[in-house]
Amino acid sequence: MKPLIGISCCTKQFGVFGMSNHAASDTYVRAIDQVVHGVPVLIPANGAGADTETLLDRLDGIILTGSRSNVQPSLYGGPPHPEGTPEDPARDAATLPLIRAAVARGLPVLAICRGFQELNVALGGSLHQRLQDLPGRFDHSTPMQPNGSVRTGKAHAVRVVAGSWLHRLAGTTAIAVNSLHNQGVDRLAPGLVTEGTAPDGTIEAVRVVDAPGFAIGVQWHPEYDFATDALSRRIFEAFAAAVRGRAGLAAAAD
To answer: Which domains does the chain have, with CATH numbers?
Structure first.
């Protein structure tokens, strides 16, 4: 039996009339299909009405996705976003309680990009709203290039903490990652430890120290290149192993 893997959705407007939809990128679905060997289940961004406990009773793991939208500053005591900054309050209201409950239960959680920021905020941390505006920081945002391989290609190095989970997985203390975000960790949440940092000091990977299960966050997007990048694939393989171990499932054949 294949595990059920939840994928957090955003609210987005599609179609001629701009109707609201719940959406997640195909890259996450393919990573679950091809590496995790699970059944992707879209988690709607239905706000405070989301039934967290019912979801967690049925899911075997959760992937928190990236998004163009930013976490609302009111959730971490920050100043309001500049006008025009995309937000998704319905997603925030659904995912933050889900994260706290999933971590407490030991349900495997892999948090990516916005999901990484949500993990920090859900557990009591705060965010920088625009890293590129801070002294000594470089621009981590999406390159405005029509070529997809350029937009999602390796953008900068990450210094991996020696002896960390990420170090064991990567087999090195220096890796290269893509970079498609404006926000970043300001105050690290209690219970989170840093697994890797960018050259400008931006936290790029974290782990929940005392979580009863797998709870990892990365600021970059391993779902973009898991077919060609060994570390990206290993991240999803590690998540898959945690899912199958908790669910008591035999490993799926490749």
So the answer is: 4-247 (3.40.50.880)
